[in-house]
């Protein structure tokens, strides 16, 4: 048996090294990778799941955005955090204020207390206080009453 690493592993390590060196050398010169004109970063998520959730919220609000670093999040730890965090970029910088309002609302709801359980007005199933839709029938929980 040979203890030499496989070619696939060597290639992956080589790619990771190139990405890290490009990032570090660019930062030392104060440069950043050029971004397409008119775009602006609006949110850096902690996880890919969170990035997808906020991307959907922006889409529901009619704000077009793209998700960057989606495929490199698995290299977290091997690359700098800034190079691997899933980041949402607006396609139109004019949407900045509306997009930040969506993000602020998301962050406020994410950190809110769960609150008391509420009953679904459609199926009478109990739901946690921070749910917007019933887990059972998917009906909106706006105006739902606390169980007795």
Essential attributes:
Alpha-Beta Plaits, alpha+beta, 148 residues, 2 domains, two-stranded antiparallel ribbon, 5 strands, 4 helices
Structure in words:
The protein is of the alpha+beta class and 148 residues long. The chain folds into 2 domains: 33-112, Alpha-Beta Plaits (2-Layer Sandwich); 114-148, no CATH class. 37% of the residues lie in helices and 11% in strands. It has 4 helices and 5 strands, in the order αβαβαβαββ. The protein has helices spanning 7-28, 48-60, 81-84, 96-111, and strands at 40-44, 65-68, 87-90, 118-119, 126-127. The chain starts with 6 loop residues before the first helix and ends in a 21-residue tail after the last strand.
Instruction: Please work out how many helical segments DSSP would assign.
Output: 4
Give Rg in angstroms: 21 Å
- H/E element order: HEHEHEHEE
Biggest beta-sheet profile = 3 strands, antiparallel
Which geometry do the CA atoms define?
A: elongated
* Order of the strands making up the biggest sheet: 1-3-2
Strand content: 5-15%
Structural class: alpha+beta
How much helicity do the residues have?
25-40%
- Under CATH, the topology of the largest domain is which? Alpha-Beta Plaits
Poorly predicted regions are 27-36
How are the SSEs placed, and which strands pair?
Blueprint: H1 7-28, E1 40-44, H2 48-60, E2 65-68, H3 81-84, E3 87-90, H4 96-111, E4 118-119, E5 126-127
Antiparallel strand pairs: 1-3, 2-3, 4-5
Summarize the structure.
This protein is of the alpha+beta class and 148 residues long. 37% of the residues lie in helices and 11% in strands.
